[in-house]
Amino acid sequence: GAVVSQHPSRVICKSGTSVKIECRSLDFQATTMFWYRQFPKQSLMLMATSNEGSKATYEQGVEKDKFLINHASLTLSTLTVTSAHPEDSSFYICSARNTGTSNSPLHFGNGTRLTVT
Amino acid sequence: AQSVAQPEDQVNVAEGNPLTVKCTYSVSGNPYLFWYVQYPNRGLQFLLKYITGDNLVKGSYGFEAEFNKSQTSFHLKKPSALVSDSALYFCAVRSRSNDYKLSFGAGTTVTVRA
């Protein structure tokens, strides 16, 4: 149980285009999901907290107009990288908290490798 | 503020030998502590957590960790390492009062040689 599906696993796009990444909780409801960015051989950097039915909360230094987050249902959050540039190339990972259980660990997707050419 | 330190970038052990990955934390109040493992180009897999109760926590794949409040540590251990344990390990902490935001350590790469 507690599976988080993240899609796509890899994407290559041209500079200036937008890319959407989906994060789905398959067998539980998640009112809160988190988006992270990970650079090679580095830790995870929290980008934003995605809240179902309300605006996302962004961490300091993260451009909310560039990284659009939508959490339209209890099982789906999307991250759209708008007008992507090569410096946006990174590994993006989502995680979700099972709303129905207290103190449960976060469950992570398998990540999306974004390459902007 | 909350933070995690993993003092070792890399840990190398021979298969069958004990494995220890160190973690110390800083948080206001009582902590929730977690260990996750990451394989190449994959997300994080949950190994174990400390919430309350026994200081020794047992988790997946034979891993365990000991919460030491006085030393603010939560070291991950496995009595007999396997080659398949080779991966990147992250320690994470959050306070009981925040809204589930985790702070991660920098990660420790474990290599188990046959």
Tell me what the structure shows.
The complex is a heterodimer of chains A (about 120) and B (about 110). By secondary structure, chain A is mostly beta strands. Chain A has no helices and eleven strands. Chain A has strands spanning about 5, 10-15, 20-25, 30-40, 45-50, 55-60, 65-75, 75-80, 90-95, 105-110, 110-115. In chain A, about 35% of the residues are buried. Chain B is built from no helices and twelve strands. The mean pLDDT of chain B is about 95. Chain B starts with a strand and ends with a strand. In chain B, strands 2, 5, 6, 10, 11 and 12 form a six-stranded mixed sheet that branches. Chain B has a four-stranded antiparallel sheet with strand order 3-9-8-7, with no helix packed on it. A two-stranded antiparallel sheet of chain B has the order 1-4. With about 110 residues, chain B is mainly beta. Classes of the chains: A mainly beta (about 120), B mainly beta (about 110). At the A-B interface, strand 5, strand 9 and strand 10 of A face strand 5 and strand 6 of B.
Short description:
Chain A has 117 residues and is mostly beta strands.
Annotation keywords:
heterodimer, A: 117 residues, mainly beta, four-stranded antiparallel β-sheet, B: 114 residues, six-stranded mixed β-sheet
Give the helix/strand layout.
The complex is a heterodimer of chains A (117) and B (114).
Chain A: E1 4-7, E2 10-13, E3 19-25, E4 32-38, E5 44-51, E6 57-58, E7 67-73, E8 76-81, E9 90-97, E10 107-108, E11 112-116
Parallel strand pairs in A: 2-11
Antiparallel strand pairs in A: 1-3, 3-8, 4-5, 4-9, 5-6, 7-8, 9-10, 9-11
Chain B: E1 3-5, E2 10-14, E3 19-21, E4 24-26, E5 31-38, E6 44-50, E7 56-58, E8 64-68, E9 73-78, E10 87-95, E11 103-104, E12 108-113
Parallel strand pairs in B: 2-12
Antiparallel strand pairs in B: 1-4, 3-9, 5-6, 5-10, 7-8, 8-9, 10-11, 10-12
